[in-house]
Amino acid sequence: MDFLTTFLLLIAGAGGGVAAANMLRKRTGVTDVRHESTLLLERIEKVFKVVMAEGYFSEIYNYQDQKKILYLLNDPKKAMVIAKSKVLVGFDFAKVRFQAPDPNDRMLVIESFPEPEVLSIDTDYRFYDIQAGILNHFNGADYTQILSEAKQVMNERAMQSDLPKIANNQIQYMMFQLASSMGWQLQLPEADQRRLDALRAEAERSDQPLKAILPSGNDPASSQS
Questions:
Q1: What's the per-residue H, E or C state across 146-204?
Q2: What are residue 123's phi and psi, to 5 degrees?
Q3: Is 161 exposed, middle or buried (0-12, 13-18, 19+ CB in 10 A)?
Q4: How many CA atoms lie within 13 A of 118 on its CB side?
Q5: How far is CA 24 from the centre of its chain?
Q6: N or C: fewer beta carbons within 10 Å in the chain?
Q7: Looking at the whole model, is its pTM more than 0.70?
């Protein structure tokens, strides 16, 4: 057997082996899926943010984009996204402004206190009913836009809910308890002080502790920081 014949037989055998392996893989339904990721840490920042309330939301977000073919025929594409989110609302204490006019009086005056804000949104997205047009197809930018808009809607819904009110009640109760435990008195900005005084008056009328008249689920022991 000469060299050329041997070489051709080796090639034929290798080809047959690859074909047999592919056939076996298709029959057994085994696929070779590989994942590769690269994690880059851009920066680390020190923050003083405190979570005072968390809420769980479900949202159905419908996306539709109209495109005309030759300025005559509509070529729409649409998708439905179902999002389930955990929203954390709290305060950035780096924005708090306070002073102690006379340390001997043990009075801490809060000059400015931030509004509650959404600190994080942890969302699980599911895409359903994705319908591309004839020429109006989905691309990576479309999915990025859909997720960005859905997250913005979730943020707005959270701020329109009772979460900010619950967070406000939580933080005031926590701060007064902390100051009291250290033998200090706390004076809030005028509007916040009036609101707290009203809560105290209600508690006295109902003969209940201040904590009891806060909205349900506001036990500071269950809050996160």
A1: HHHHHHHHHHHHHHHCCHHHHHHHHHHHHHHHHHHHCCCEEECCHHHHHHHHHHHHHHH
A2: -125, 140
A3: middle
A4: 20
A5: 45
A6: N
A7: no
The string of pLDDT tens digits covering residues 64-89 is: 877 766 666 777 888 888 889 999 99
Give 112-169 pLDDT, tens digit per residue: 888 999 999 998 888 888 877 777 778 888 888 888 888 888 899 999 999 999 998 8
Task: Please report, for the chain, how many H helices and E strands are present, in that order.
Answer: 4, 8
Contact 153, 59 (CB under 8 A): yes
pLDDT at position 141 is: 85
**Structure tokens belonging to residue 152:** 């913005």
- The neighbouring-strand residues paired with 187 are 109
- Residue 193's contacts (CB-CB under 8 Å, 6 or more residues apart) are 187
Structure tokens belonging to residue 121: 């949104």
Q: Which two tokens stand for residue 194?
A: 């009036």
Residue 166: count of CB within 10 angstroms of its CB: 21
Place of tokens 């699980």: 124
Residues 6+ apart with CB under 8 A from 203: 209, 210, 212, 213
